[in-house]
Amino acid sequence: MELAEAPMSTSTPEITPLDYTRYDFKDPETYRLRIPKGLSREVVEQISKFKDEPAWMREYRLRAYDHFVERPVPDWGPKLDEIDFDAYTYYANPLLEGETKRKWEDLPADIKNTFEKLGIPKAEREFFGGVGAQYDSGTVYHKIREDLAAKGVIFTDTDTAVKEHPDLVRKYFGKVVPYNDNKFSALNSAVWSGGSFVYIPPGVDAGIPLQAYFRINAKNVGQFERTLIIADKGAKVHYLEGCLPVGEEVLVGDELAPIETLAEGRAVLNSDGRETTIEKTMVRPFDGELIGITPVSVGNAFQLTPEHPVLCVPREKVQVSRRTTRQLTDVDTRKLLATPPEFVPAGELRPGDFLHYPINRTEHDVPEIDSAALTVLGYYLAEGCVQKINGCEAVTFTFNIAETEYVERLSVAIHAMTGKHPWRIPQPEKHAVSVGVYSKELYAFCLTHAGKLAGGKRLSKTLMELPPSKQRVLLEAYYEGDGNVYERSGTVHRAMTISRQLAFQVQELQARQGVYATINVREPFDETMPDGRTISHRRMYIVYHQVGKRFQAVRRSGNAFLVPIRRIDRTPYRGNVHNFHVAGNNNTYLVKGFSVHNCTAPIYSTDSLHAAVVEVVAEPYAKLRYTTIQNWSKNVYNLVTKRAVAYENALVEWVDGNMGSKITMKYPSVYLRGRGSRADILSVAFASEGQIIDSGAKAVHSAPDTSSKIIAKSIAIRGGQTSYRGLLHVAPGATGVKAAVRCDALLPDETGRSDTYPYNEIHEEDATITHEAVVGKIGEEQIFYLMSRGLNESDAIHLILMGFLAEFAKELPVDYALELNRLIQLEMAGAVG
Which residues contact 781 (CB under 8 A, 6 or more apart)? Predict the structure, then answer.
């Protein structure tokens, strides 16, 4: 997704994009208006008809379409011949035309939730003078602060501007970027939808930025927003466009696995309790507070980043009263069971909210694992071990001397499996009896399906996927061997193990029996015995459930349990956080058994197309900054035309960062048409595996005493390709021009590629022109120096990269500089070693 673009400021409106890769979610495709795939004259007419546009706009669109058809795809940059223009939908609007909302609460729930996850309401309240949001083809929300509106500032979507400000739009629309400028400006001019229209009246200082957010949600839907920004004489404006920590564990069906160990293709469970596979893994740096969630089963506590969506039923929707209470049962059970769970950012969860714990529905029977085998395995988990006695494989068990019934049951099961009668050796001094059998087959069977040693006991995937009726046999034997029963407000069934993995597996098996078992943890401690000996007790996991209790905190709802949160903590954390995207439409996985959402740009196997046009007009003495940090998904063709015109003594600044997309072609330009006008263009490109970022800048000097500065920085790593493609033009009569161009490229490894294609056309002899170009690598001595100061290799390289980009980062608002830092760290993950 693209963060945002913005105009400059001493007080200038600006657009800065947000990182849409954090959740990687896609919403259901529910559109009020949608045109079938394909591009034709009829499609263009239908778009215009939907919008009820004036005749001049419809005719403009049709002229643009005719030019698009006639004009060939450019052959001078990255190869675009794989684009099938008939494979895209050119109009998909979740609202009816004219339904753009001015109140956030009026938005449809799914769209509102999407942009709330991206932080729009918070951003609107705290930082920006106006906020716009576009969802595929439709502008769904636009609002400007009342104090700016009172000054005459217009900030609306471009469709609305065509109807409400027709004279202004017609005066400027297509004048900076005409439809026949290039093939993709023609495409945009034919099928454009949405975008922002900004007008700052003469002498008005917008003061704080205006921001827009753009999101492609649906598969094969292109986005073609049209943005038009006019800073009138003396005006100023700035326009901006807009996980889990290491060690946290995900349920992969048969066991819990640390999230950082999971790879593409690994099977995991989703919120339906069904198995799915990981399609894409993600890692990014995080420096902030983690949210620690402790449910009533304290052993299932987990941590995640504040924005990570968690599936739950908020307690406030189902509680009996609003009074403060510590009783987690103080809810209306019927209402609770009737309320569908919803995704809530972890940072907004409260104690008492009900987490969603689905029951594993993966089931594969293995006929040869019968009740005798499961009985043996259950007792083995509790009391058994494998060992070699005099070189022979044996399986032995130790019972209390009074547990004769269990010994007999085990002996019968062993004989059924092996045809052998096990030995029984009483040990009166220990109040115990030893049971065992020599059997190579049983030795291997127990080792394969239940592990060895007390701390290494665990159930195989085969056992975890058996039908619940068979698993019940194993559980009964296990609880007989390692459990106890006592009365406390009902009957408590409890089992204890030092194997953490086994505790969670038993909890999962109990869920398949219709029982939610909690896990408590007894920490290690030393005990001094009466004879002076010290016994060290290891960490113990206690799995228990209660039958017959009048009030139950946990409720069963369909194929899941609703488990209340006991406590929420916040912990400072600095390090990598991980996430992944799973196959199918469910987009969820389980952390310690609880449902969470994927980490926002939707991932599709097919490509998407973003072909925007931005026109910026800086009238005399105006100042305008336009900031973009785009991070589109890496299946997006990002083909954008952005151009500004600066008149007498006006200043235009482009701050342009490009990190996402499959192919980007973008060359922000400033045409200096008034004496004394200035242009500052700062561009950054970062290309990783599978990416081509062809970017640059253009400064066209058409008036005397104008000046421009272009700084372009690029980083290409892991086979990524960056190109600087720039133009510096000084027209005849444009005397006294001063212009500087600097291109810096950094290649951190041997596989990246960087090219420079500068074009200088100078038609006045008194012009002062400088051009520098440098391509460098990271020196081993630099890395060695930083590592000698305590940094690891990855952190050392990241620090060097951020130093290389410091000139760009310092021009960003603080939040966006931090975001740039995180995106760089994300792209660098795995680049070392």
Answer: none
Q: Cα(105)–Cα(544) distance, rounded to whole angstroms?
A: 44
Cβ-contact 236, 625 below 8 angstroms: no
Number of domains making up the chain? 3
Regarding whether 293 and 176 lie in a shared domain, the answer is no
Is 546 contained in some domain?
no
CATH number at residue 12: 2.170.16.10
Question: What is the SS3 string spanning 554-594?
Answer: CEEECCEEEEEEEEEEEEEEEEEEEEEEECCCCCEEEECCE
Same domain, 649 and 589: no
Sequence length of the chain is 833
Going by pLDDT thresholds of 50, 70 and 90, the confidence category of residue 818 is: low
Burial class (CB in 10 A: 0-12, 13-18, 19+), 416: middle
Dump pLDDT digits (tens) for 481-492. 888 877 777 788
Residue at a domain's end among 541, 570, 597: 597
CA–CA gap between residue 616 and residue 624 (Å, rounded)? 9
User: CA triplet 725, 726, 732: central angle to 5 degrees?
Assistant: 150
Residues 691 and 715 in one domain: yes
pLDDT tens column, 227-261 = 899 999 998 877 655 356 667 788 787 788 888 88
Residue 496 placed within a domain: no
How far is the C-alpha of 35 from the C-alpha of 48, rounded, in Å? Answer: 12
Say if residue 176 is in the same domain as residue 296: no
Check whether 71 has a pLDDT greater than 80: yes
> So what's the pLDDT on residue 105?
52
Give the 3-state secondary structure of residue 184.
Answer: helix
pLDDT at 118: 41
Which residues lie across from 355 on neighbouring strands? 312, 563
Higher pLDDT, 611 or 491: 611
> Is 625 in the same domain as 756?
yes
Range of the domain at 615: 33-245+606-775
The pLDDT-based confidence of 474 (bands split at 50, 70, 90) is very high
372: CATH: 3.10.28.10
What's the rounded mean pLDDT across residues 579-593? 80
